[in-house]
Amino acid sequence: MHRRLWTIPCISLAVAACSLEPPSYAAYTAALDHLSAGTDTEGSSGSTSTTTTTTALTSSGATATGSSWATTSDGETASGGMTGDDGNALPLEVAVLLGPSSVSKVGEVLVNVWTSRPVKTIDIFDGEEPLVLGAAPKTPVAVLEVTSDQSPGDGMHMIRAVAHAEDGVIGQAERDLLIDVAPGGTDVWPPYVHAGPVSAFTGVTLLGDQSIAASGVIEAKEGLVAVVMQFDGATGNVEAGPISLGKISVAAAGHGPAIAAGDDGAVYVASTRAGTTWAVSKVRPGNPLPLVWTVTGELGTQAFGITFAGNRVVVVGASEVAPGTHDLKVWWLATEDGELLDESTFAAGSEDDPGNLLDELGRAATLVGDRLVVVGERQIEGEFNNPYRRAVVLHYSLAGILLDEWTSPGELLEEDAGMAVAPLRDGGFVVTGWGRNVFTIRQVLTRWFSATGEAGPVRIESTPGNDAIAYAIGEDREGKLVLAGSRKTPATDADAWIFAISGPLGAHTWDVIRSGPGKGPDQTADLAIGPWGHVSVVGGEFADLQPRAFAMRLYP
């Protein structure tokens, strides 16, 4: 597995992965003194530096020894030339400090530079490849972003800096940077497995401190109850829970309980209570009294997904109109107290479905720009009045007004459904779920949409002998899409399946199969991708003829 090294011109002192303070001017000087004596030393922040002896050219053609770029202690550039007693331009001493000087995980590397006198601009190279040209001598001069893509890859990289003074003197220095990042899809920490019987995680979200909150179901004295647990994102240790949210009637991948994190530090869990009725609970997992409030809806309703639109909680699901037949439903709630602010029903019109016999379900939602995008599935009448399931995409304003709707034309496979949706950083969004021809097995199907909602490329994962479905999707910081779901192997077994793709075409970037110790339906129900691309996934697997919950965190 190779890694890509990106560079970002930067004047900020913030750092995400290495958490280093930029060394002081005095620390640079001390480091340079040691380096001049031939010693490789650490600065005050733990980063290391190297100087090299070069020939510095003056504007008059004279030469001097040494290498460096120059900045003042506050990072400002001084102007004008500098000469010695003999009238020749002074040499330029340069020191390069990298923080850190070796990288074992995705993150940032600060490039700091000390020079013996002021300079005008600085160029930075990885070997002979330019990374930053003509940068101002700030602190840090640049931030190198180490990701998990394929170029230039793991190994030793020589980071070289070339400084240009106002009087034409040029100095340079270099420093080795070792990159050895874990391959994508490998475990960050050992997977957590819930010890109790009859349990599964069905939703996951990231909290502000990079902890993980997972929703799911466990067996209690009163029956199956919805729960929330909180995990340390760095270690996988349980920080809080399981916190019981009450008895439920429906729980499975794609059916909830679903979870989302609010801006107020709380998490919101949507579930289907016994009855059946949708329910939403506001929870603060780390508090002594974690449950803030719970609200429920009308009978005959189910909640499958949850997200936010501005200061509103949005729940998507369905309302039952007859056994096996539903209308797609969306509810908007106030975050403060759960008050029902609005609701919307989507179903085929009376001209297409006079008896309201066709089924419509909402599965997931996300915010794309200033629109709420809801995805799910609906039935349409095909040849010989046979019903076909098709993916449906609905666009709402933040105020809950239906703006647009799209139904899959089934151009590649006769049936499909949208189980998850994710926004894309470059605009638009992507929907995944499943597709199949009638009377055949399901295949994972993913479709891209433009920023204005036009349907784009379609990708189908070829698993001709295995029934497969995706329940979750997200985009990492490198633009890869990570999908999670399940893939059936023999008729009696299924495995949890997580994989990454770079776009509509091409092989998987990485694959992870998780198979429980027992025969049964193992599946990944949800995922959340952190700011550095780490993928937190949750689901359920079988052991000793009982389902049990698991949570994992994978390298990007």
What distance separates the N and C termini?
11 Å
So what's the oligomer here?
single chain
Instruction: Please give the radius of gyration in angstroms.
Output: 28 Å
Number of strands: 40
Please give the count of helices. Answer: 1
**Which geometry do the CA atoms define?**
elongated
Measured as a percent range, the helix fraction is under 10%
Structural class by secondary-structure content: mainly beta
Keywords: Signal
Q: Any overview of this molecule?
A:
It contains one helix and 40 strands. It is mainly β and 556 residues long. A hairpin with a 5-residue loop joins strand 38 and strand 39. The protein is elongated. The protein starts with a strand and ends with a strand. Residues 7-29, 31-49 and 51-80 have low confidence and may be disordered. Residues 37-73 have a biased composition (Low complexity). Residues 1-26 form the signal peptide.
Produce the secondary structure layout.
Layout lengths: L4 E5 L15 H12 L11 E3 L4 E3 L5 E3 L28 E6 L2 E2 L3 E9 L5 E6 L2 E7 L6 E5 L8 E10 L5 E10 L7 E7 L5 E8 L5 E9 L2 E9 L6 E13 L7 E4 L5 E7 L3 E7 L7 E9 L1 E9 L2 E11 L2 E10 L5 E7 L13 E9 L2 E11 L5 E11 L4 E6 L7 E9 L5 E8 L8 E5 L5 E6 L7 E8 L5 E8 L5 E8 L8 E5 L8 E7 L5 E9 L2 E9 L2
Parallel strand pairs: 6-12
Antiparallel strand pairs: 1-10, 2-5, 3-4, 5-7, 7-10, 8-9, 8-11, 11-12, 13-40, 14-15, 15-16, 16-17, 17-19, 18-19, 19-20, 20-21, 22-23, 23-24, 24-25, 26-27, 27-28, 28-29, 30-31, 31-32, 32-33, 34-35, 35-36, 36-37, 38-39, 39-40
